[in-house]
Amino acid sequence: MKKSWIAAALSLTMVLPTVAACTKGDADDKDTERVLRVAATSDNGEEGEYFRQQFTEIFEYAHPNIKLEFVEVVDNSSMRYGGFISPEQQKEQQPNPVVKLKEVMQADNPPDIVMFNLNEMQDLLTDNLLQPLDPMITKDKFDTTDIAPIVLDGLKSVSPDGKLYALSPTFSSAALVYNKKVFDEAGAPYPEDNMTWDQVFDLARRVTNKDSAKRVYGFSFNSQGYMDYMNMMSIYASPMGMSIFDKDVDKLTVDSDNWEKVWNTLIQLEKDKVIPSQNDYQDEVFQQSKQPSAEKPYAHDDFLSNRLAMSVMNYYDLSRIDNANKNAAKNNFTPVEYNAVTLPSHPDHPGVVGSVSLNGIMGINAKAGNPKDAWSFLKFINGEDYARAKAKNNYQLLSRKSYIKAKEGSDLNINAFINVKPALETMNDMYSLYRKYPNIYAVYNVAQMEYMQALQGTKSIRDALKSWQTRGDSMLQQMRDNPNGPLDMGDGSTMGAARAW
What we know:
This is ABC transporter substrate-binding protein. This protein is of the alpha/beta class.
């Protein structure tokens, strides 16, 4: 721990002279004490602890005369450490953080900097609450050519006029990672960039082996095994703009032809054992093959065990594979040769994928009292010096392309994580939904149950969707009528008090 602290301090010491030099030209930067007020729809811990660690520590060192103040939008202290919501808390509907942020932004002494997610940004722009950044970018000749298109396109996609109203210093992204050995043994071609979902599923069928003792899945939404239904839907269906709820979250929208088509596609893939299924865990021979041992240290991991040809993986997942390969000799393990291509997309939405999130999206309040320092801050955390200081981060990708590189000696197609477009999150904006309905997870539990009945053939797909729609609508009504009461799940069972998450 001590060595890590010293290394971090040294890194910060080396970065600061560059940062200070970079800001030297600001007119009265070091002479006048000023306050920069920050607000966010998410929980940043006490005194903005998370925000400071991620974004402001170096900036504050370089600007000792600028004091950051954090404006509380919604009190999250009761939920910060988990636990059950008290009956008193459940009696009152949790406040909508976007509504509260709008109020704070237009109040006396408003925040200068505001942080939000992509969906929330769209709401703020509708009410003209953000300053356009293009005039400031042009005036200061701030370089945006080095910002990855995935970031710029994502931010502009929610803008009514195609201009920039926010910037995002980092992002998370996924790609289609494939195991070369599996394809070589099957005599099948490797996947390529810009494939459609149907093309990927067709290729997956070619490399699938249904023998439980020699199982090979052609594709999976999760490299280590079965993925739950809702996460599959988020990756596969949300890029088409499909949603579970209507705009006001009063009713479900799942009893439809489009949802039937999605379920039919995925259920057939599970039945054909092209993708992992919950049913596979009832196969004793297959389960035995997943038990780790000295000879098979990574047996639990389908990708590392060569039981999986292709998988959706986030950028940070690659460190798990790289670490296994690095320590292969110690663990009696044969390194896995892999590479990545862009996630597949739907023909009507080319290049749009559902596993991208822009992190730390920030804009300047249209009523900011200190817009000059707000812009200086945005320039800094989206500039080259910040990117250089964060370049060793293995979990998020930096928005500046110059600092998005494969590891030395690797032939990884790093552009697979960059050359896509982020979909607006229509499935699992759980933070907002949870505030309106603390028991919202019950609706997803019903989806999982109905999906399993359709998979097992005890219900037709459309009947399962109709049942989900009916039960879900009833549950939402119950949540509106009596947030603190037991929830009738529609199958004879009940659900008790909501739990914080």
